[in-house]
């Protein structure tokens, strides 16, 4: 007898969605996380239309919409000039917008729903090793405890122990440039209903609204400091956004620097061990796809596991691995392109911007971008 049907390792957005969805379908599931409490740092800032659609069955979408900020507009600009406007309003969905919400809030709402469904995150509890045989998987934790499950899912992020233990490769690489990231309050020009990617000749800057009057700034920079200062962010806005003095940083809440990896696991399934979320794929945050892809992995995997555990052949698990891996590769292609376009050498940037303005005249280009960024293309 196994202790549980499914052990989920990692209580980020992927693991929480997966566990809640399993419980919602009557499957026994346990979830562990090595952290004593949920992380409170600023990470993903956007929930897209597809995530909100798939979270409807879990009764979580309306809670997120209530806690977040609706941004119906998304544009690529150079200063005041719009290069490519992206219109979500015509998309056939109940959520024709980007929902701006901090990852900490998304996790809090998912955990709240998990608790309502009778689940609880066991923490702090760190997985050290796993061993599988024909009837299940034995998980061994750093406190010496063991747990036996029919299936184990690694939703344990980029440095996944589950992936390492299963011997699954994680091929890919790293973009050369560093990115600066900051959450700030500003005065002056900064729309609250629009996510803007400024393609300035000095480089890219993202200016995205968050709830409570906060804005997220993201920018590739060859000398991005470990902790960007208010002056550094002000310079980014002056040189790359609307123009000098037009948007003033009044408060720096948080800042960091990061490098971007692009990797996909060789497979999302090795027998009774499965991968989902960042454990299975990492890529550029351009277009805000990372957490959203993890949430759709979780929903698809919950259905595949429920089907299998209800007695069907386990081919649904292979289908999960093949289809979500293919999606991850498509997302890597899209976000890789957006990143490369934004980090082109300076002499090529005016040519790039002219090409973007021309491309904007083709309705199919704008439509494709809207479908991909909203995640609806993966329905
Ligand atoms: C600075 C920053 C900015 C980002 N911006 C965006 C953005 O704008 N848009 C976007 O979509 N994405 C963004 N991301 C990425 C996004 O945060 C991730 O895609 C998302 O967190 C993935 O969720 P996950 O649940 O798969 O993994 P994670 O959130 O990494 O969760 C994994 C969990 O597993 C736990 N864990 C790890 N190892 C073990 C173990 N051995 N035992 C037990 N528990 C373990 C960890 O404690 C963690 O809680 C950003 C990330 C960072 C760091």
From TrEMBL:
Source species: Mycobacterium simulans
EC class (word): oxidoreductase
SUPFAM superfamilies in the record: FAD/NAD(P)-binding domain (SSF51905)
Any one GO molecular function term: pentachlorophenol monooxygenase activity
FAD-binding domain: residues covered: 3-333
A Pfam family annotated for this UniProt entry: FAD_binding_3
Cofactor(s) this protein cannot do without: FAD
Name of the protein this chain belongs to: Pentachlorophenol 4-monooxygenase
Signal sequence coordinates: none
EC number of this enzyme: 1.14.13.50
Keywords recorded for this protein, A-Z: FAD, Flavoprotein, Monooxygenase, Oxidoreductase
Database matches in PANTHER family: BINDING MONOOXYGENASE, PUTATIVE (JCVI)-RELATED, TRK SYSTEM POTASSIUM UPTAKE PROTEIN
Primary gene name: pcpB_3
């Amino acid at each position: 007898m196994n202790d549980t049907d499914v052990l989920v390792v990692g209580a980020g957005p992927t693991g929480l969605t997966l566990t809640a969805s399993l419980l919602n379908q009557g499957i026994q599931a346990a979830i562990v996380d090595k952290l004593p409490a949920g992380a409170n740092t600023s990470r993903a800032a956007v929930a897209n239309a597809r995530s909100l659609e798939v979270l409807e069955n879990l009764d979580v979408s309306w809670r997120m919409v209530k806690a977040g900020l609706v941004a119906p507009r998304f544009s690529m600009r150079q200063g005041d000039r719009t290069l490519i406007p992206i219109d979500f309003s015509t998309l056939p969905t109940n959520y024709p917008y980007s929902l701006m919400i901090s990852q900490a809030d998304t996790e809090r709402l998912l955990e709240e729903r998990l608790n309502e469904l009778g689940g609880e995150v066991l923490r702090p509890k760190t997985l050290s090793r796993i061993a599988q045989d024909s009837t299940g998987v034995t998980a061994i934790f750093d406190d010496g405890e063991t747990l036996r499950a029919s299936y184990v899912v690694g939703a344990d992020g980029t440095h996944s122990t589950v992936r390492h233990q299963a011997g699954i490769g994680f091929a890919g690489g790293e973009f050369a440039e560093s990115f600066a990231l900051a959450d700030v309050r500003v005065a002056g020009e900064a729309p609250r209903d629009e996510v803007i990617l400024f393609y300035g000749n000095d480089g890219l800057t993202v200016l995205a609204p968050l709830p409570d009057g906060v804005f997220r700034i993201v920018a590739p920079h060859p000398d991005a400091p470990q902790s960007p200062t208010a002056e550094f962010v002000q310079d980014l806005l002056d040189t790359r956004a609307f123009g000098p003095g037009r948007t003033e940083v009044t408060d720096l809440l948080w800042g960091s620097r990061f490098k971007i990896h692009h990797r996909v696991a060789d497979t999302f399934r090795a027998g009774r061990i499965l991968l989902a979320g960042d454990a299975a794929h990492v890529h550029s945050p351009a277009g805000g796809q990372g957490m959203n892809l993890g949430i759709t992995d979780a929903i698809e995997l919950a259905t595949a596991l429920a089907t299998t555990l209800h007695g069907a052949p386990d081919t649904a698990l292979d289908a999960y691995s093949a289809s979500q891996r293919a999606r991850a590769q498509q997302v890597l292609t899209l976000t890789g392109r957006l990143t490369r376009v934004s980090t082109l050498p300076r002499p090529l940037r005016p040519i790039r911007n002219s090409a973007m303005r021309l491309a904007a005249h083709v309705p199919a280009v704008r439509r494709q971008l809207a479908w991909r960024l909203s995640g609806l293309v993966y329905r």
